[in-house]
Amino acid sequence: MFHYLRRLVSIAFLQGLAYFPATFHQICVRIGQLRRKGRFLMGRPWMYIVVCVMCAALVTQAAPSKSVVVGINTENEGDLSQAGRDSEIELMQQNGVKTIRTALSSKSVDFIIEAYRHGIGTIVIIYPTWGSNAKSKRRWSDAPLSGADPQGFAAWFQEKLDKFEAAGVRLSGLELGCEINTSGYDSDIPTPGTGRVLGLSDLNNPRDPEGPAIADGYRNYLRVMEALKTVRDHSKVNKTTPIISASMADWGLPGPKSWNGDVGVSLPDAIQFLRQNGMDKLADGYGVHVYPSGNSKLSVQERISDLEQKKIFSECSQSKPCWLTEWGTPNGSKSCPFEDQRMPVFEAERSAFSKYIEDGRLTAVIYYVWSGSPPSKFDPMSVYRCGALSEAGKVAFSPL
Which helix (DSSP H) or strand (DSSP E) does residue 59 occupy? Predict the structure, then answer.
């Protein structure tokens, strides 16, 4: 019996060193100090080892490691030829991309499946107006959320999900919509309208000139989200894939004038309204966007203060974390070879994000964007240029 117990202790000791060396060391040093003073486990060294390992294990369980989805946005891959899609996937795989975010469409399904086979997961943007009459719009801004059809959407999404299920593809996230607090993705929001940034009180005010129509669209959006959750819950491979609310743009806090003169809804207030109307029962996380300053002289603390002032992550919690599905800063240089000067900005901003990751309030950080759309088109936000990934780009989606 003693021999068997000693063998277990040896195994536990080695595992303790491998998985929590810092914690193991700190606990054992303290117990050793007590033991030398004759106050703990006198004459029983094997019990000393057992207590060290058990205490370290308890501490490790009490503070689990954070798991963060880090990736990059891609666009319009479905418009590429088969050879072009294969080449794009190969490039991303070679450069260490683990997760992409892209829109779900009939054209993008095959790309997403092939990317998965190359070890690249996908957060799919699923526009809530697909499957309804609104999908015949000329522009995204022509599609009101109030015109979305939950049943039509469910049928449309089920067809796409069936293809992923058949291929054994587990998606990294289901993001229902994009920037629905702007007129660019929800025509229930007039352009330019009053030019205000609406808040929660405006959405709840039946006498507001713009709030009630936007609020009605958001309520219908939640019906579409309920349809999405029903389809997901009845799947097999994607039964636990996280549902993410539409990522809200940083449109500023409520006030009489927006940054561009167009009416919009404040990021935290849009999320608050959706939560007020039942989103927490449907979504696993909240999508947000932020495009921080490109000033390389700003410190990490200054960047955190800016995020706090804008309330970008104010609605995040450990149970309902935020997914940052777009962030980035531009570099307008078109020269080749490309020298990317954004390294200090990327490093400082990612350090600022780490505060929210450590708090359990931020679970995904997705950079915008890999390259242009199509890839040959110049995009000042891109990190893949002149046939190579920039040094700053390598930082943009490296593990956090």
Answer: helix 45-62
Q: How many CB atoms lie within 10 A of CB 399?
A: 7
Helix (H, G, I), strand (E, B) or coil at 343: helix
Round to whole Å and give the CA distance between 28 and 160: 54
Cα-based distances in Å from 198 to 194, 289, 292: 10, 18, 22
Residue 390 burial (C-beta neighbours within 10 Å; 0-12, 13-18, 19+): buried
CA distance to 6, 23, 65, 352, 355, per residue, from 53 (Å):
13, 10, 18, 34, 29
Q: Which amino acid is at 309?
A: Q
Average pLDDT over residues 282-287: 98
- What are the structure tokens assigned to 377, written together? 């088109």
Please state, in angstroms and as integers, the Cα–Cα distance from residue 170 to each residue in 103, 236, 238, 241, 301, following that order. 16, 9, 5, 7, 37
- Give the per-residue pLDDT at 207: 98
pLDDT 10s digits, 34-44: 444 454 444 55
At 263, which amino acid appears? Answer: V
**Tokens 């593809």 appear where?**
169
Q: How far apart are CA 228 and CA 155, in angstroms?
A: 10
SS3 of 244-307: the string is: EEEEECCCCCCECCCCCCCCEECHHHHHHHHHHCCHHHCCCEEEEECCCCCCCCCCHHHHHHHH
